[in-house]
Amino acid sequence: MPDETPKIHIDSDWKAQAQAEKQKLAEKAKDAPARGGGAPGQGGLPPATFETLISTMVTQALFAMGAIPDPRTGQRALHLDLARHHIDMLTVLEEKTKGNLTQEEADMLSSTVYELRTRYIQMSSQARG
After folding, report:
1. Does some domain include residue 68?
2. Structural domain includes residue 104
3. How does pLDDT run across 25-47, given as a tens digit for each residue?
4. 126 to each of 21, 31, 87, 121, how far by Cα in Å?
5. How does residue 114 score in pLDDT terms, banded at 50, 70 and 90?
6. 121-128 long-range contacts, Cβ below 8 Å, gap at least 24?
7. Is the per-residue pLDDT at 8 higher than 90?
8. Domain count, the chain
9. Smallest Cα–Cα separation from 120: which of 128, 97, 56?
10. d(C-alpha 129, C-alpha 127), whole Å
């Protein structure tokens, strides 16, 4: 009976190619967190910070109050109920994070909510007539 043990032939070119591919993937993985963090100016998203969260919510409120035109149409739309919702969400955030923010973050959030409320009151008064 002939020997039935399978013979394994390792191609050294294949082995070198696999090693090179493994090295490329490792380099990509190492670079991915830096790109994923999205440092401004690198074509990525802004960093995930408290300030970015507040800025995003403020932008939505201002858009709903017509302060920012729709990028597709260039028209300003007034959706006071939606603006009020975004301001209320910032107020909830302010209440729930009380005592857990730096003084700078707390001041920024407080002044932002105050300014948005003031603008909302002005816009709603104008809308009523």
Report:
1. yes
2. yes
3. 666 666 655 544 445 545 688 99
4. 64, 51, 18, 9
5. very high
6. 123/65, 123/66, 123/78, 123/80, 123/83, 124/80, 127/78, 127/80
7. no
8. 1
9. 128
10. 5
Q: Which residue has the tokens 């802004």?
A: 46
CB-count exposure of residue 104 (10 Å: 0-12, 13-18, 19+): exposed
Q: At what angle do helices 50-64 and 80-96 cross, to 10 degrees?
A: 160
Residue 25 lies in a domain: no
Site of tokens 């007539």:
129
Angle at 114 between CA 50 and CA 103, to 5 degrees: 45
How far apart CA 40 and CA 46 sit, in angstroms, is 6
Amino acid at 81: D
DSSP element (H, E) containing 39 = none
Is 24 within the bounds of a domain? no
